Amino acid sequence: MLSWEELKRECDQCVRCGLCETRHNVVFGVGNERSDILFVGEGPGEQEDLRGEPFVGPAGKLLDDMLSIIDLSRQENCYICNIVKCRPPHNRDPLETEQDACIGYLRNQVALVKPKIIVCLGRIAAKRLIDPDYRITRQHGQWVEKGSFWMTAIYHPSALLRDVTKRPETFDDLLSIREKARQLGLKL
User: Fold this and answer.
1) How far is the CA of 137 from the CAs of 42, 71, 154, 165, in angstroms?
2) Which of 103, 115, 125, 188 is the most buried (most CB within 10 A)?
3) 45: nearest Cα among 30, 55, 35
4) What are phi and psi of 79, to 5 degrees?
């Protein structure tokens, strides 16, 4: 396992897939590196690629609002990253080969953070981390214990910007995350 510094350096120099050819910045992760709660999205968008930080565009603003509902903050008590660290062109879904190229980085981040809860943001992350057959519309908010982690998935903030009718369900999912954290004795 690499240290944070070694891992960041390796990610910055990565050429394992074609996404490196069009990136402006590697989007590594942000937040408390010893948090009990880890949020994992699929990959950076345009604003994230330009700034080198996950969830900084409109979806990031919404994510921050969502986190505040359950007393979480990217600066204090959660960590946020993506499966792929470079932006797929035109914000398309990351290809399986691109996810495969980056998954080792994510595993290393998880090993360093040592979260108790992993929240997948959207179907791509849920399919990769929870179950390849995951159906976000049917399974969002359901909890799965995998190894030493409790995992769930919620709608991606971008999906909530496109379809506001999913917001009440997501509010319930957020409350479920807070409740699971309390059940586990985590301090929020």
Assistant:
1) 17, 25, 9, 12
2) 125
3) 55
4) -125, 140
Angle between helices 96-113 and 4-12 (to 10 degrees): 160
CA dihedral 34, 25, 98, 166 (to 10 degrees): 70
Is residue 140 within 8 A of residue 173, CB to CB? The reply is: yes
Task: Characterise 53 by phi-psi region: left (phi > 0), alpha (psi -120 to 50), beta (else).
Answer: beta
> One digit per residue, pLDDT tens: the chain, 188 residues?
999 999 999 999 999 999 999 999 999 999 999 999 999 999 999 999 999 999 999 999 999 999 999 999 999 999 999 999 999 999 899 999 999 999 999 999 999 999 999 999 999 999 999 999 999 999 999 999 999 999 999 999 999 999 999 999 999 999 999 999 999 999 88
Contact 56, 47 (CB under 8 A): yes
Smallest CA-to-CA distance from 40 within 173, 100, 130 is with: 130
Cβ partners under 8 Å of residue 138, min gap 6: none
Strand intervals (E) in the chain: 30-31, 37-41, 79-82, 117-121, 144-146, 149-154
